């Protein structure tokens, strides 16, 4: 659905004759250039997985994290311009903190995602600023309301999901996610599947090495958003690599 | 004791008062007297209602300066209504109490009013929060407040039981209020009671002649 909006694409305050705001669409293209991030909601929690491409061997391992903690019960995985995403994570943190200060309890995720989406949308109205070039997935777990997952894109829309993917391989990732019966899975089972999906959609030819970032929030973490512990992560990566090899093998048999 | 001292310094109309709230099995009962006084000796109203509804299933009992209490509850009612529409769900009792607390704490120099916020919500069921003069917020299984409350600490400490039935809790409240009104000169009139449960809020007025009588009456 790409077209060049010559003349109508210079500022976010201009519509094109066919009713599009090209600056916002270009912002979404910036997200599509970034590597993939996925979030999946299961029976008792939410799991995030990010394919973090390593551009140089000189980088310290674990730098430039793409999963943030917004409040103790909310996590955020991002794709797109990382600097824009960091600025939005601060906005989300302030919203959550002010809510807790005023109302005495954890911010409900639907409300948080609507508030941050409103903020993102404000930057699509004026020619003096550019839209944010990142999408992000918010996830939380609460004893009473259960697991929640919301995604916000540069146009300022937020939707609730059972599973979603953003970034360059989002189509392939969505196909894999749709194969899962996530409503019946627990977080422990889901962690392995998330790792497997990231390994599947990673393009060995175009992009070389990558680091897998995994985090979760759910009954297993008593409602706190945390990075997946080292041993569980290693087990998940082992499962992912083995599944990939099996699929390679079966391809060879068919030939 | 803080309340007794400050009471004589409240200018204008004060709710020298007795208020209470009690949790029972399935809800809360809140109650108050109905006297408003100016100074120590003039009763400016015999029939005011000190149980202010701030949302469908959340009420605030007011004490201290009547003007301050009305201003705070009016503001809290507005904020709570806005919050509840934004959340698209009934507000938590804790959220209502937090709103009261923020107003009291941030304006503590100007205000002289204390509250008992009580109600029912889907998440934690019946709850009671005391919001004191300076903005302290405290969750309790039952709470008493106002100048008349000093006379009934012994009674409520001795007679309160957790998980009472509605009848037991009603009798407990009526007794406590009657005892306080009998000894505190700035509490009196009728007893207002509101019962809040999942089903809603029901207001009952108990006139003076129907209140429990004790040995000296």
From TrEMBL, chain A:
It comes from the Eukaryota. GO terms for cellular component: cytosol; nucleus; proteasome core complex, alpha-subunit complex. Keywords: Acetylation, Cytoplasm, Nucleus, Phosphoprotein, Proteasome. The keyword Acyltransferase does not apply. Residues 8-30 form the Proteasome alpha-type subunits domain. SUPFAM superfamilies: N-terminal nucleophile aminohydrolases (Ntn hydrolases) (SSF56235). GO terms for biological process: ubiquitin-dependent protein catabolic process. Its main location: cytoplasm. It holds the Pfam family Proteasome_A_N. The keyword Cytoplasm applies. It is found in: Cytoplasm; Nucleus. The 26S proteasome consists of a 20S proteasome core and two 19S regulatory subunits. The 20S proteasome core is a barrel-shaped complex made of 28 subunits that are arranged in four stacked rings. The two outer rings are each formed by seven alpha subunits, and the two inner rings are formed by seven beta subunits. The proteolytic activity is exerted by three beta-subunits PSMB5, PSMB6 and PSMB7. Interacts with AURKB. Interacts with CDKN1A. Interacts with MDM2 and RB1. Interacts with the C-terminus of TBXA2R isoform 2. Interacts with DNAJB2. Belongs to the peptidase T1A family. This is Proteasome subunit alpha type. It comes from Triplophysa tibetana.
Automatic annotation (TrEMBL), chain B:
The keyword Protease applies. One of its GO terms (cellular component) is proteasome core complex, beta-subunit complex. The active site is at 17 (nucleophile). It catalyses: Cleavage of peptide bonds with very broad specificity. The keyword Cytoplasm applies. It is found in: Cytoplasm; Nucleus. GO terms for molecular function: threonine-type endopeptidase activity. Keywords: Cytoplasm, Hydrolase, Nucleus, Protease, Proteasome, Threonine protease. It holds the Pfam family Proteasome. GO terms for biological process: proteolysis involved in protein catabolic process. InterPro entries: Ntn_hydrolases_N, Pept_T1A_subB, Proteasome_bsu_CS, Proteasome_sua/b, Proteasome_suB-type. The 26S proteasome consists of a 20S proteasome core and two 19S regulatory subunits. The 20S proteasome core is composed of 28 subunits that are arranged in four stacked rings, resulting in a barrel-shaped structure. The two end rings are each formed by seven alpha subunits, and the two central rings are each formed by seven beta subunits. The catalytic chamber with the active sites is on the inside of the barrel. Component of the proteasome complex. PANTHER family: ATP-DEPENDENT PROTEASE SUBUNIT HSLV (PTHR32194:SF0), METALLOPROTEASE TLDD (PTHR32194). Belongs to the peptidase T1B family. Component of the proteasome, a multicatalytic proteinase complex which is characterized by its ability to cleave peptides with Arg, Phe, Tyr, Leu, and Glu adjacent to the leaving group at neutral or slightly basic pH. The proteasome has an ATP-dependent proteolytic activity. This is Proteasome subunit beta. It comes from Triplophysa tibetana. The lineage of its organism: Eukaryota, Metazoa, Chordata, Craniata, Vertebrata.
């Amino acid at each position: 659905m790409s077209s060049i909006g010559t003349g109508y694409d210079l500022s976010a305050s201009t519509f094109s004759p066919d009713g599009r705001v090209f600056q916002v669409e270009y912002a979404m293209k910036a997200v599509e250039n970034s590597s993939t991030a996925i979030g999946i909601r299961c029976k008792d929690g939410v799991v995030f997985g990010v394919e973090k491409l390593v551009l140089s061997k000189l980088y310290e391992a674990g730098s430039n994290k793409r999963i943030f903690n917004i409040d103790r019960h909310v996590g955020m995985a991002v794709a797109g311009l990382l600097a824009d995403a960091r600025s939005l994570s601060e906005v989300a943190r302030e919203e959550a903190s002010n809510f807790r200060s005023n109302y005495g309890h954890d911010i409900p995720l639907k409300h948080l995602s609507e508030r941050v989406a409103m903020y993102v949308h404000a930057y699509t109205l004026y020619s003096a600023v550019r839209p944010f070039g990142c999408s992000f997935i918010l996830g939380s777990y609460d004893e009473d309301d259960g697991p929640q997952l919301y995604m916000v894109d540069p146009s300022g829309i937020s939707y609730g999901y059972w599973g979603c993917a953003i970034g360059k391989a989002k189509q392939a990732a969505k196909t894999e996610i749709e194969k899962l019966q996530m409503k019946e899975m627990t977080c422990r089972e889901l962690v392995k599947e998330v790792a497997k999906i990231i390994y599947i959609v990673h393009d060995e030819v175009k992009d070389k090495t990558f680091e897998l970032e995994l985090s979760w929030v759910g009954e297993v973490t008593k409602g706190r958003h945390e990075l997946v512990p080292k041993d569980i992560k290693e087990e998940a990566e082992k499962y992912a690599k083995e599944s990939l090899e099996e699929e390679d093998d079966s391809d060879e048999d068919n030939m | 004791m803080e309340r007794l001292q400050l009471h004589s310094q409240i200018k204008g109309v004060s709710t020298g008062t007795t208020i209470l709230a009690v949790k029972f099995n399935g809800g809360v009962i809140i109650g108050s007297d109905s006297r408003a006084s100016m100074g120590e000796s003039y009763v400016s109203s015999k029939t005011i209602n000190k149980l202010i509804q701030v949302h469908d299933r959340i009420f605030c009992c007011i004490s201290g300066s009547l003007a301050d209490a009305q201003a705070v509850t009016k503001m809290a009612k507005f904020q709570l209504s806005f919050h509840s529409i934004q959340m698209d769900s009934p507000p938590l009792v804790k959220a209502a109490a937090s709103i009261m607390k923020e107003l009291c704490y941030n304006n503590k120099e100007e205000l002289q009013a204390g509250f008992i916020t009580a109600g029912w919500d889907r998440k934690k069921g019946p709850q009671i929060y005391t919001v004191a003069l300076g903005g302290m917020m405290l969750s309790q299984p039952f709470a008493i407040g106002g100048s008349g409350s000093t006379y009934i600490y012994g009674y409520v400490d001795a007679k309160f039981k957790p998980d009472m039935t509605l009848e037991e809790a009603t009798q407990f409240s009526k007794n406590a209020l009657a005892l306080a009104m009998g000894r505190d000169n700035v509490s009196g009139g009728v007893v207002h009671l509101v019962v809040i449960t999942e089903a809603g809020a029901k207001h009952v007025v108990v006139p003076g002649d129907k209140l429990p009588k004790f040995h000296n009456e």
